[in-house]
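Q: What does the assembled structure look like for these inputs?
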Amino acid sequence: MSDNPDKKVDEFNLVGKARRRVDARAKVTGQARFADDLVLPRMLHCKLLRSRLPHAKIKSVTTDKARAAAGVRLILTGYDTPVPYGILPVSHDEHPLCTDKVRFVGDPIAAVIADSEEEATAALDLIHVDLEPLTTISDAEEALRIPEPRIHDYGDEGNLHKKVAFDFGDVDEALRNSERVFEDVFFYEGNTHLAIEQHATLAAIDDAAGPDGRLTVWSSTQTPHYLHRALAKALELDPARVRVVAIANGGGFGGKSDPFNHEIVVAKAALMLGRPVKICLTREEVFYCHRGRHPVLMKLRTGVSLDGKIKGMELQTLLDGGAYGSYGVASTFYTGALQTVTYKVPRYRFQGCRAFTNKPPCGPKRGHGTPQPRFGLEVQLDKIATALKLDPADLRLQQLVEPRSLTANYMSVETIGLGECIRRVVDGSGFRARRSGGKLPTPGDIAPVRGLGLACSSYLSGAGLPIYWNDLPQSGVQLQLDRSGRVTAFCGATEIGQGSDDVLALCVAEILGIEIADIKVLTGDTDLTPVDLGSYSSRVTLMMGNAAIEAATRARDLVAKAVSDKMGVPVEKLRFAERRVTFIDDPARVMSWQDAVILAEAKHGTLGTTGSYKPPRSAAKYKGGGVGPTPTYSYSAAVVEVEVDPVTGWYDVIKVWIGHDIGRALNPPLTEGQVIGSVYMGLGEALMEESTFRRLPPKLSGALVHKFPSMLEYKSPSTMEMPPVEVFLVEDPDSRGPFGAKEVGQGPLLPMMPAIANAIFDAVGVRVDEVPITAEKIARALDAATKGRPARVGPTKFPAVAWPEALKIAPPWEGGDGTASNDRPKKERMARPGEVPIGDAPIIRPEVRR
Amino acid sequence: MMRCPEFRYFAPDTVEEVVKILAEEGPRASLLGGGTDLVPNMKRRQQTPAVLVATRRVKELHNVENDATSARLGSGITLARIAASPTLRPWSALVRAAAQVATPHIRNTGTLGGNLCVDTRCNYYDQSYEWRKAIDFCMKKDGGVCWVAPGSPRCWAVSSTDCAPALIALDAQVELVSKGQTRIVPVAQLYNDDGIEYLARRPDELIASVRLGDPTGWRSTYWKLRRREAFDFPVLSVAAAVKLEGDRVVEARVVFGAVASRPVVADVSALIGNRLDDASIERVADSASKLAKPLDNTDFTLGWRKRVAKAYVSGALKELRGDDLETLGLLARRQSMLRVLS
Ligand SMILES: Cc1cc2nc3c(=O)[nH]c(=O)nc-3n(C[C@H](O)[C@H](O)[C@H](O)COP(=O)(O)OP(=O)(O)OC[C@H]3O[C@@H](n4cnc5c(N)ncnc54)[C@H](O)[C@@H]3O)c2cc1C
Ligand code: SF4
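A:
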């Protein structure tokens, strides 16, 4: 399908050339419209009353006073929106407004819709909520210890949402036969997306309110298609009468990829009132929507031979999921799925467990579930290199996964440019010659010490499977060709700042040989555009790009047919470039693109084509194998240089060298922008970002609150902390990507955290086996070393978890076929008809509707 | 969006009118400088003044008069102006403090007077109304208990002004004007050791100006600790000033910011008459840093802030003796980007 990915850059019209992106001018000049910019006549404003207790039964909600307050038009409570929803079909555990209980500070209980935001806010304080406090579960280890009261009445047991276990071959034997086994426990603190735009939604009814009305919802969402489904389900509407418009997003990073309670609430209010209703969340409320990085405790055991080759690996992860399911089941699988796609792991065991806790729900953040175990793996490899006196780069280079091969867990690797990425950053940084060697500072030294650290990673170019099971295309593109020569490309994909509109225009213009200015893109509108699943899992460039290429190729064929008939030359002899169709053998015979389109319309009638894309089938046929496969993986390697103060542990990041295997850079400055943006976000996680919570003395207060839900106190680096970044784009076109392109939006984030940890060790000889890696922790590790204790900060034990029986899957090289020998057949696994599917919370309707 | 509660707004043109309104309205009125502290606090309902009296249009509050031996700074001048002023460089500590407040945008708006009165800070208090409600509020606003020290009868919110410690180290004075009265007091006396009643200024008083004395023979500096080199309030700061005759110290002042509810003046008499050699610096740094008793209500762990306190006192004094900042460790280098200013 891809248009000859092996072409050289100069054989393309536009691909690979630096261009201003299609939406740049509107965004830079402030003309792009975001949800909060929208204003409609007779628009009302909504505010949500949120729980101030972390875990409680709702005994009553009294709204009379608020109803009577100035400007108030409507008050909604849980009974008005009783149908549960959720992003994953296995965890429909959220209600737009809480019905029977609240599960974290910030869980919405009621909504006030009023003439102004001020009036809505004032009325919140007039609502009386009677809550009966329940035991608070504040972290994953508490959830393991305290099964009752349950936060949800579904899940694998007690307060454990999901437990999974896999054995890919006999890992115990592999570890027994290893010359050395390294065991580490790591902790990765949770953190959040911090998109600059706060979530906002406007809902309105067309035509008439009531049964004839059509609902339109404009929202800052990364997944209009999933929101469309959630609205239809939660509001019991015919999906054909619901339109979702994903308006310009001021950043997403995974934080806008769930359907949200506020979106459903304003839709409900608009339906009831027949007037437009808008909600704009405050920054604090965004911290409560969250769905960010899960805090993960992990234990990693790796058996190696003395030359550092991995023999077997065992990974256990414990995820603190927060109060709802969100993408959590997928996140759990993701903490194990990609450990095998960089270095050869002959045998692999993975056990993962996600707990419910009384905090804002965690979900997907850039890298979804994979940065945490990647941190563990890359830090442990560095420790192995030190212990076995091997060069960290050579240790990795000698055991890279082969191109076009299957891993132990049946992830299928296509091209792999990781070796080249490592070589470039190692050479670029002078890594081999300039390392300090991990010596502890001599007491009394105050001069700063430099250190270099290396780490690698891999990420998906789109999840192989959709969120809900279906056999349909995952991305569709529709083209309409106008007599003016203008081509409109319609696609459900969502521009969240990552540049997907630009990719769409590029793919179409490249194939048709016209200019970007000839293309109009219309995206993310469920009434007008064919389905694309959304901007998550780095899927858009690859999936939408391939669909666009298919649609454009079909359009080109129609035009070529008309031109070839007219000129009397064979179709294959026509070249589409520079807005012209040219006869290759005699370039004097040429027709303008516009004339060619007119000719084609005369011949075929109105011109329009479609294209669609569905990823290839995965080799991982075992249950749970649906998470991890992708058409192709991207790879990254980074070297980071730090300078550390041996007295206080303070450190500065001096420079970052990063290589990214992109397949093909479609618009190189945009690609580099994504790499640098990922580096920035990764540095934020490594240096300082943490979603931490404050539990007040339980005797005095039941509170468990986010410590600092504000942009001032939730520390994220400023431009002053951003070091220079040298980017190496490694281009080895992959036949599965559009023009050979792979993902770039997430992968380059992953090596940053372990590269920093490894650089700190290189500088001052201490290990911080925890993220974030702060000066305080380095100082603690230095103190420990002076007192003769291990120069390390980090967790020491992984709690006991009653793991389920592991699915046993033989690796490909041990005769496996991708299925588990002890898996129950699919039919048995499906819920019996009439049974409530797991995780579908009950619909709670009041006896009498008020 | 978070919105302000309702208020009445006055924007008078003269000091007389300002103090008249203050006298009439009493404690329910607040002065408004750049609003960079007050307005966010109003949105969070930490302060809910019914009346705002803006100082913006009062021309005399925007004056700077100075020569080589003294300066009188109108309270309405912006921090950006102080940071950029070539004639204020002899009062180096102040220039550096002003240059490190928040961000360029805030320095372009925030005033000197507002900076001196900036509300004390605490992680349990600098939160929205809803958040504070979830913890049943605290003593500083709407509640009864102090969450930082639950047994304590007082509030320990942290003095977070950057300019005040610098001005105290420079022995500056403020001019307080109320209806029919003007008093001039040392900056140190503007503050109480209490997180709630942190200002000794009466509600009817306007800070009209700040007065700086003769800088001849003095060297001064300001070191600020914060996680990021923009945005962040100080979580520890050291303002130091020494007057040298030959290589002997004849006068010295070291002041901590952000370790208590007011700026804390350290006893550095041990320096007097001595050279600024390593031994005497270490001695003073050791004893002075014991005064820094941070609590767990700001960024960073308190143990670590204490560790840095000592390094900061010694670093600042070594800088004043003429050491190259590059040789004073990493945290010193962060101060050095400001060297161009002094
Ligand atoms: C993101 C952010 C970061 C910040 N970082 C820092 C920082 O690093 N360091 C720092 O010191 N501050 C910081 N601030 C606080 C504030 O911006 C500055 O202190 C600023 O100088 C305050 O001046 P203003 O004119 O804006 O004060 P306003 O907000 O107008 O007033 C503050 C207080 O002073 C009173 N006041 C104002 N003028 C007078 C006067 N003439 N006489 C008597 N009382 C008066 C007001 O009534 C009010 O109580 C920060 C603020 C923000 C929002
Ligand atoms: S120190 Fe105590 S009383 Fe003061 S603001 Fe903080 S929690 Fe409240």
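The pocket of iron/sulfur cluster (ligand 2) is lined by residues B 122, 124-125, 138-140, 146-148, 155-157, 195, 297 (CB under 6 Å).
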